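Recap quiz, item 2
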Amino acid sequence: MSRGTVRIALLALAPLLVASVIGAAARPASEAQSDLAALKAKYRRPASVPHPPDNAPTEARVRLGRSLFFDPRLSGSGVMSCGTCHNPGLSWTDGLERGVGHGMKTLARRTPTILNVAWAEALFWDGRADTLEEQALGPISSGDEMNMPLEVLVPRLRAIGEYAALFEAAYPGEGVTEQTIAKAIASFERTVVSERAPFDAWIEGDESAIDAEAKAGFVLFNEKARCASCHSGWRFTDDSFHDIGVAGEDRGRGAVLKDIEVAQFAFKTPTLRNVDRRAPYMHDGSEKTLEDVIALYDLGGRARRPSLSAEIVPLELTERESRQLVAFMRTLTSDDAPVAIPSLPR
Amino acid sequence: MTRAAALFALLALLVAAAARAEDHVVSQKDARFAPAELAVRVGDRVVFRNDDDITHNVFSRSEAGPFNVKLQPPGSESPVAFERPGVVDVRCAIHPKMKMRVVVGE
């Protein structure tokens, strides 16, 4: 090819190049809209609540589970129920930095909410329980928490006359056992689902449900701030475990997966539903506000260890972007109906 | 001459064994393993490929073939050889919802 032909060829290409540059700079609005629509579709609420095949949540099981959940006789002291720490008035947590257990002992970790745990997998901050049924008995029997040995609990409940009929209706012929106690509590917990928030209305097409700042925050959440690498789906968690750079000696999931580097100092990704009503934050309550949480991620974590997640990198957010992220998170809060505490069996 | 024949026979066996061993690819995409179950033969390798844009860490605690490939950045491939027959339950240490099973046959 002579130099002249090359020049002609380049000239012929020029309009194409210009067109593609213009195209990249200003993508058609319809394309950006369809990207946003695809993103929003990933956050739609599910139509039904899952449950294990051997523990369908019948009305009788939920009723029994609700009584057990709010019954302080499930604790060694007789004054603590599951609902003492998982207080429905405080979005099913306690508002404390770290939980307070038997004998007013301050526990190692913050009380996680039970909102939407029906969908959760690997329960507890360190994921040591595979199922809700397995999880339910943990805090009851823990000496630090409710301090109630299960071999004491079962005869104690059998001695409460009105419980017999509730257990019989829920699990006919099975009686009061560790298994039926766990299954009933899990059945009740599966009914604890956060209600529709302004965000859900927006996802479903109501453009006025959330404001422009929150909408910008949603895009940042999924893109620049990388939050959706873990806080994905309608619950805003994928049930994963990461060391996100919270300082401290607690190895979290590392105690369960001892020989796995990435599990060290890793904790469960919590749901972000109703998150602005559940301060303080992190597994140890070390971040007091949502603004503090964003600051931690913006730094790329406060503690740098070999186990630090590869997803945690400095974000270089502007002040406005940080505000938009918080504005977005506040749209995830639902105005949940009051929860009735039942009259307990005697 | 006998020694050369024996050597040849051994080589032939090794080549045959190498030809029999297969590589199978398991993809990790949208925090799911695909396929969710895989039948292989003793000596085969499974290449765990991270097709996500997040990091994974495939491992197993199963007696038939415990392993830990450690950190897998996006785009990386981690081959694991299965040397014993049995069922190997595979998980991601970061994403417990990721589950698959390798069934190793004789």
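Residues 36 and 100 of chain B are 5 Å apart (CA to CA).
Residues 22-105 of chain B form a domain with the Immunoglobulin-like fold (CATH 2.60.40.420).
End of item.
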